[in-house]
Amino acid sequence: MEDKECNSGGFMRLVSEESCSSTVTDELCVNYQTEIFNQLPSSLARRRTHHHHQDRGTTETSHPVEKHPGLAGEARDRALTQPIRSLPVCMQRKREARDLRHLQTRTVGRWESWKRNQSINRKRLGEQVGGAMSRLLPWSSTFHTIEGRFGVGVKAYFVFLRYLLYLNLLLCLVIGGTILTPTVVYDSDGDRGLLRFEGNDSVLDFFVGSGFLERSPVFYGFYARSSLDLLCLNTPLLFLLGTLTVLILSLVMVVRRTVVGYKHTWLLGNHYHIHMSYKVFCGWDFCIHDPEAAALKLNFIRNELKLYLEEERFQQREARRTLGQWAHLYSLRGLLHFLVLVLLGGAFCLIYYATMASQAERSGDYLILRVLLHYLPPVVITLVNFFLPHVFRHIAFLEDYSITTQVNATLVRSIFLKLASLGMYLFFLFKNSQQECWENQFGKEMYKLSVFDFLACFCNTFFIAYPRKWLVDRYPSSWLARLSGKQHFLIPFNVLDLVYSQTVTWVGLFYCPMLPFIETVKLTAIFYIKKLTVLQCCVPAQRMFRASSSSVLFHFMLLLGLIMAVITLGSNLHQFEPSSSCGPFVGSATVFNVTAVCVDSLPGPAQSTLRYLSSEAFVLPLILAQIVVLTSFESRRRANGKAIERLKDMLVMSTSDKHFLLKQHTLSLRRRKKTFKAPTTVSGTREGSPTTMKDPSAGIGEGSHIAQLKDPSAQPTGDDSPS
Description:
It is globular and about 115 Å long. By secondary structure, it is mostly helical.
């Protein structure tokens, strides 16, 4: 196919051989196409915009090709280097593109041909490596199964769990390289092993964190100054460096994931709507041959349609509300907000009394009773975090929000409950910590919170979910089965459990360095427990919600938990002096004194540089540089936003042009059909027939047909002339 470029007003037009295959001259064909082009809705809109700018005295154009003439050439160059397999054309056009590239390879130089081949090979290699890496990701088939049966929202929970598992694996590498390995290798006390058992140790020590665990690397008191005792390379400095590295690395990864998710949501969430026709006609993957995969894809499309219909139904109901209904709704929401505050205050009071009862000394009680008292604050926190989110879910339902807004409101209230309850517990705990090795005591409390969180998850699955499913399946008509109902996987509450568990890990990291290892094992076990719960005990929810905005909210809540952990850890290290009986910082006034000793041992220029970087004089240039960088990014964001809006307008006008051309093509076919029928009708009239029958299918082209009969010059020529 031979392409001809016709640039008119910044518009690149392609004239093919098929469009000029008649006996009409090329000049008439081009004039006809120019006339059609001037009638397109996009051309009319562009001319109106151009006249509007001329009236205002500006020369701004709304077409990106007119503003940047080189864009068409750049797009053509990118199309030449794009792999033929990824071109959005049919197989015949791909063969023609392949032949054209072979022809261009002969005409261009060897250097240009080699560069194009290398670019194509790099893209293919990148696609193959990306596909291989995606197949190496764990649990991918499980994610597809869950997505097909329960929708993308439940899948987002498991993707979030896998992300936390990767994060904790990375933290384990940092802790193992900076804290655990130097302590084991440079141990000054050779007979001190990692685990030391004594006669009074018991199994309950594993749940309380005492006994053999207290003498293990799990807690802060195990680490002490070893033979590695240089000025800038010692156990206290490595301990502090490992903790700061973990927090900074976690902050970078969580912020990056949150920003990327927010950008994706902003581009596709509020400004882009997928119609049902797209899902119906373009949503199926015709490469599927497996019946199970086809069933999963069918369920996925059905869930998407249910979600779209639910959103449309809510928008219609919201649009029909009157002013009185809005006033009543806002009054109800205000009353429910006050009820939420009352419930939060009552939860904090329960946590306070549980902490006071746990800290009280009871030496004469039985061992089991003492274990229960040790676990009293975790039990109260777990019960509060278990029941109140369900209350918040019903409150959000009464507030009459959309399903996505209900989920987000429940998430925000529940995460505030979890983080605030944890913060209140830490505040009461630090207020009453007067023991010699208080770091070990604090690490034990974080360890007990982590262990009890896993026990609660295990018991909820095997002692509540499975018996409930058995009761509903075995005795569906009983009043207890009707009261409990079928179980659904509640995404907000399960996500909150993950955020709470990870926050506990960050808070207790300094006092219990092995918490990332414990969290990694716990998340792996939780994945399989939740997988059994979803696939065996739960049924798909009747109301779906979009996971795009909620996924961003998941990571934002995780970021809030990290900020809370950093603030708590920083205030504790700054306010309390290190214990004089245990830990690597024995004999130091503060934890950060080890850095001052290292800086004092450095040469003079290095000391001056480090002191300048930590002084207020460096803050002002740093702030100015950040302002410049943020300004440039904001300018790019605005420019990209304008380009996106222009591209959306171009898509809309392209659709209008297609409708217009389809209408013109239909009229042309009707005129041609009428033209072929006209000579027969005229000859029949000349032979003396009294009347002439009209063709009812002629439609709109009838007037033009009569004009052609009256005017001989209007008769078609070439292929259109009657034989």
